[in-house]
Please model this.
Amino acid sequence: MAGMVAAVIRNIVILTGAGISAESGVPTFRGPDGLWEGHRVEDVATPQAFRRDPVLVQRFYDARRAALVHVEPNPAHLALARLDREWTGDLLIVTQNVDDLHDRAAEPGHGRPARLVHMHGELKSALCGRCGATQPWDGDLTGADPCGCGGTLRPDIVWFGEMPYHMDRIDAAIAGCDLFVSIGTSGAVYPAAGFVDAARHAGARTLEINLEPSAGTQLFDEARHGPAGRLVPEWVDALLGG
Ligand code: NAD
Model:
C-alpha cells in the first residue's frame, strides 16, 4: 500500500497547525477553554487589540517568543524535515504556526527548510507598522527602538482580519498537488481551513492527521486520529518506503 501510494504521488502540500507543536509543550489555541494562553483572541490577535492596548499585545508575544527557548522540535517536526530533505517531487509545508519548531527541525548546517512557509508570520520576526520592513527578532519588542523610518515595530504575526503571507505560492502549490495532508489543525481558521476543498477540486487525495476529528474531517479521503508525534513519522516512513 505504502509503495503504491509513493509510486503515484509526486506533488505534496502539507498544512500544519498548533497541534503539531503540542507535544513539544507549546499550548494550542482552541484548547478546552477556547483561549490562547489564557487570553481571548480578540484581545491579543487583532489589529484593533494592538491599537487599543499595544503594551498588552507586545507583552503577550514577547512571552510566546521567550518561551521558545524552552521547547524543542518533536518527532513530527523531525519527520517533516526528513521528508523535505528526501522527497524528490514537489513539496510545500505550509505552517499556520508562529513558533520556529519546523525551522529548527532541519539538520544543523542545512539552514531553514526551503520548502516551508509561515502563512501566519513568525514570533522571531519584527514588522514595521509604517514601512512594512521585517527583521529577525530574538528579544522583547516591548520598549524596542523604532524602525529606521520612525515607525513602531510590532510582532510579524498575521492577526485576524489581515492577509496571510505567501498566498500566491500556496494557491499554486495546491492547484498542482496530488496529495494534501493537514496535520494538527482544528479547521476553524480561514483561509487555511479552505485548503482541503481547493485540493479536492484540484483532484488531489486528502489526508487528515489530528488528535481528534477536525471541523472539516468529513472533507478528507482519509483521517488518522492520534498524536502527531507518532502518526506523522509513521506516515513519512511509509511514504519514503521504509
Ligand atoms: P488550533 O489550536 O485551533 O487546533 C489545534 C488542533 O490540533 C486541534 O484540532 C487539536 O485536536 C489538535 N491537536 C492537539 N494536540 C495534538 C497532537 N498531539 N497531535 C495531533 N493533533 C493535535 O490550531 P490551529 O488550527 O493551528 O489554529 C490556531 C491559530 O493560532 C493558528 O493560526 C496559529 O497561528 C495560532 N497559534 C500558533 C501556535 C504555534 O505557533 N505553535 C500555537 C497556538 C496558536
Q: What stands out?
A: The two ends are 12 Å apart (CA to CA). The chain has a mean pLDDT of 92. Residues 17-19, 21-23, 26, 28-30, 36, 96-99, 120, 184-186, 188-189, 210-212, 214, 227-228 surround nicotinamide-adenine-dinucleotide (CB under 6 Å).
